[in-house]
TrEMBL record:
Residues 48-294 form the ABC-type glycine betaine transport system substrate-binding domain. SUPFAM superfamilies: Periplasmic binding protein-like II. Its main location: membrane. This is Glycine betaine ABC transporter substrate-binding protein. It comes from Glycomyces tritici.
């Protein structure tokens, strides 16, 4: 639980350099935020804040949104990319990272919360309608996960997945596949970017494909997709997207923690932001977020 089938790069850079632990870091000096003329309305402050993120679309745009807001408010902000969730939670729990804006609860990141939860602060929930999905193009005549195995040949025996460490991958592999007897398809993991590239190519050629996905996600606005029914609820009910922080963050950065605690985005707001970044600005995250902020009040997100 990134849309850029073709994303121009990591946050505020022209090229992504994914590293598992050290990550790809982007630092901006105070006052150098990208959205010119935007009044973020946050109390002024100072200090260094590191935000960890995975290359998932909602994480990418939310991280850049807050990077620009906090930079404009006087902080030195580093956005550090991770390719795996485990090292990110480890970094957060050890204090090497300050904030993570994409904690899916109570299911997707349950394993990590059981391991590291008592070493973290849960600052707030900013979206309450997140869901794990398995989806196909609307032109594919398959309606349910229960029908997937009977149509294995249609999909070449493949379910195109995302990162192996993702909670979505675990839910499909350990929940959906055994529950529905999906023995003739293999869940192939790689990366979200690779999955989206395959999805884009298949739809362009009007070929069948089945992918692991989630909502909210800009792919649902760009493509005509349908979620396969999950009558046994193996992927779980709707989840929340939460902001997590290291222990002590609220004490050290009280104003920032308070603002993050009130942060909220509706499905429509998030979809609009992702569409601006990944479609209208072709994955240029910094420019896309800055453009969205010209037309949307940041203060509405932290009211």
């Amino acid at each position: 639980m990134q849309r850029r089938s073709i994303m121009k790069g990591a946050i505020a850079t022209g090229a992504a350099v994914p590293l598992t632990l050290a990550g790809c870091s982007v630092e901006e000096e105070p006052g150098e935020a990208s959205a010119e003329g935007v009044d973020f309305g946050l109390p002024k402050g100072e200090g260094e804040i590191t935000i960890g993120y995975i290359n998932w679309d909602e994480a990418v745009v939310a991280t850049e949104l807050w990077r620009q807001a906090l930079t404009a408010s006087g902080y030195t902000v580093t956005a550090q990319e991770f390719t795996e969730v485990g090292p990110l939670f480890e970094g957060l729990s050890s204090g090497d990272l300050d904030v993570f804006l994409d904690g899916w609860l109570p299911i997707t990141h349950q394993t990590y919360m059981e391991t590291y939860g008592d070493q973290l602060e849960q600052l707030g929930t900013w979206n309450e309608n997140a869901a794990l999905t398995v989806a196909v193009p609307a032109y594919v005549d398959v309606e349910s996960l229960a029908d997937l195995n009977a149509n294995a040949d249609l999909f070449g025996g493949r379910i195109v997945g995302i990162e192996a460490s993702a909670g979505l991958t675990e839910a499909v592999q350990n929940g959906a596949i055994p529950t529905y007897g999906i023995t003739d398809l293999t869940l192939e993991t790689s990366s979200t970017t690779a999955m989206l590239t395959e999805l884009d190519s298949a739809i362009a050629a009007e070929e069948p494909i089945v992918v692991t996905l989630w909502q909210p996600h800009w792919a649902y606005a760009k493509y005509d997709l349908k979620n396969l029914a999950d009558p046994e609820v193996t992927l779980g009910e709707a989840e929340t997207i939460n902001t997590l922080a290291r222990l002590g963050f609220s004490e050290e950065f009280a104003d920032v923690a308070e603002a993050l605690g009130t942060f909220a985005m509706s499905d429509e707001q998030l979809a609009g932001l992702e569409n601006t970044v990944f479609s209208e600005h072709e994955g240029d995250v910094q420019a896309g977020v800055a453009a969205w902020l010209q037309d949307n009040e940041f203060s509405d997100l932290v009211a």
